[in-house]
Amino acid sequence: MALFLSLKVALAATVVVLPPGILLGLLFARRSFPGKSALETMAYLPLVLPPTAVGYLLLALLARDGPLGSRTLGFDLDILLSWKGAVLASSLMALPLVARTARIAFEGVSPRLESMGRTLGMGPLRVFKEITLPLARRGLLAAGVLGFSRALGEFGATVIVAGNIPGKTQTLALAIFNDLQIGRDEEAQLLVGITAALAFVAVWSVEFLLRRPRSRA
Amino acid sequence: MSDGIKLDLKVPLERFTLELSWETGERWLGIFGHSGAGKTTVLETLAGLRSRATGLIRVFGTTWLDSARGVCLPPEGRGVGYVPQDALLFPHRNVLGNLLAGAWRLPAMENRRPSPERVMEVLELTPLRDADVADLSGGEKQRVALARALCSGPRLLLMDEPFAGLDLPLRRRILPYLLRVQEEFALPTLYVSHDATEMKVLSREVAVLAEGRVLARGRPDEVFLQSSILPMVLEEGFENVQEGTVREAKESGFLLEWEPDLCILVPKGDLKSARKVVFGLRAEDILLALRPPEGLSAQNVLPGVVRGVREELQGGEAAGPVLVSVATGRGGRALVASITRQALSRLALQEGVQVHLVFKAQSCRVLAAR
């Protein structure tokens, strides 16, 4: 049960985090603008902040009287203490990793190849679609897998925003904690085994994706 | 002038500001200069890749840049075929995929876009059609880059020392492809190189660039003889580049019609027949004689009249070899011979003196034939 919930949350979080992550990566790799380093630092903050601090900030944002709370907006976003809260928390925690990996992926694409595309008659959007995106493909896939893995293991922010409700918001990471707390060591071991296997596959595929391909796949 | 090219450019660079004014009706242009002279900058500015460039670019009636009126076409709106020094092939596409990369051109240019099949035929790329670009040799990569530019149907071809990375023999082998492209597609071309021989073969008008400024401009065979330019060329030796119509394919070589009643024998290489031959003849391979020589092993003896003597000056002192330009035959087609200072005074050569040019057929290098 916790496994499926975890997969669902992590997948949803990956879907949520990829567009802004890729956009930020592109921005950081290709543009210079005032306040760039400030924005970059902000985007990377969840990487170093204690997850519980991020969770607290989200909670403050979404609490009834917070800027995005039900009383301020006039309706309830229904995020707190639901699986959507887990998605939100883990995608925010995954954002730095995704943005950073995407940035590196885009930096690996020579701007001169993009210029070449322009001289051949492609507009900027077409260049992005025909040249930048295909050439950064492997790195972006790696960004996705890393984001997924990060979301899968997320604990601190999730427990604050979504709570630890078995069957509803209790993901693998939370379930392990739970089982340990109440002394169900065997269940905990099983769950640890499952997460280890998932993590192994994820890290291995990232290594595979980021290795320089000798020829096209 | 709607059918020509007009440039009036200023591009600030790190070490100097590139300044170029050029108005011409010629279609095959060259920019000659050592590395760091600003040659690539000119091409990138024309391609629209230098945002700091100011001034005017007008190409065959279309204004690409006019900073006074705030006009600046983006690269994709200019219709250039850019062949950079390092080919810059798209690694995620095969050869054909690269050739088709320019298929996004504006429909207005559609009609002059040659088919990829034809381009591959001319550049002998057909067998490589489906090859991965990572597997190509240096020369093949450059040919694919050229083909990609041609397939996009450009108004102006920009070639940036496309063969600088290749060794000399390979470069000479690719030269015929360029001539074939000139003949087949008749595209206006701006060719950048620091190889004077290539420049003489490929361009009708050349600008010599140093430190971002034009030192001289004009027909390549004349420009390269100017005393301010000569030292730049002499490092690699002065080479005459000439074209001749084949009158007869003999056992020993092609007999080229040079001037009326005057023929030159050049080696055949591995060719069986040809209509026209472009050949190079190094200035130091030509001997000068005051009287018609007899009993020679060399097969080519041309009578002529000294038209000019060019001494190279180094720090105000006369040094190195002397270049003697000789008008041959009735038409006065010129060849340049290089002799020592001592020989110059011994023969008392000066303008108007009658001489005979002597050179071996084997000294003529066939650069291209068709």
How would you describe the overall organization of this protein?
The complex is a heterodimer of chains A (217) and B (370). Chain A has one domain: MetI-like fold. Chain A has 10 helices and no strands. In chain A, α1 runs antiparallel to α7 and α9 packs antiparallel against α10. The relative contact order of chain A is 0.16. The mean pLDDT of chain A is 91. By secondary structure, chain B is α+β, with helices and mostly antiparallel strands. Chain B has 2 domains: 230 residues, Rossmann fold, CATH 3.40.50; 130 residues, RNA polymerase II/Efflux pump adaptor protein, barrel-sandwich hybrid domain (OB fold (Dihydrolipoamide Acetyltransferase, E2P), Beta Barrel), CATH 2.40.50. Chain B has 9 helices and 21 strands. In chain B, strands 7-8-9-3-10-11 form a 6-stranded mixed β-sheet, sandwiched between helices. The radius of gyration of chain B is 22 Å and the shape is globular. Chains A and B meet through α6 and α7 of A and β7 of B.
Q: Could you provide a short overview of the structure?
A:
The complex is a heterodimer of chains A (217) and B (370). With 217 residues, chain A is mostly helical.
Which helices and strands occur, and which strands form pairs?
The complex is a heterodimer of chains A (217) and B (370).
Chain A: H1 2-30, H2 36-48, H3 51-62, H4 70-73, H5 83-107, H6 111-119, H7 124-153, H8 156-161, H9 172-181, H10 185-210
Helix pairs in contact in A: 1-5, 1-7, 2-5, 5-7, 6-7, 7-10, 9-10
Chain B: E1 5-12, E2 17-24, E3 28-32, H1 39-47, E4 54-59, E5 62-66, E6 71-72, E7 80-83, H2 95-99, H3 116-122, H4 138-151, E8 156-160, H5 168-185, E9 189-193, H6 196-202, E10 205-210, E11 213-218, H7 220-223, H8 230-234, E12 239-249, E13 254-259, E14 262-266, E15 276-282, E16 287-289, E17 300-314, E18 317-328, E19 333-339, H9 341-347, E20 354-359, E21 364-369
Parallel strand pairs in B: 3-9, 3-10, 7-8, 8-9
Antiparallel strand pairs in B: 1-2, 1-4, 4-5, 5-6, 10-11, 12-13, 12-15, 13-14, 15-21, 16-20, 17-18, 17-20, 18-19
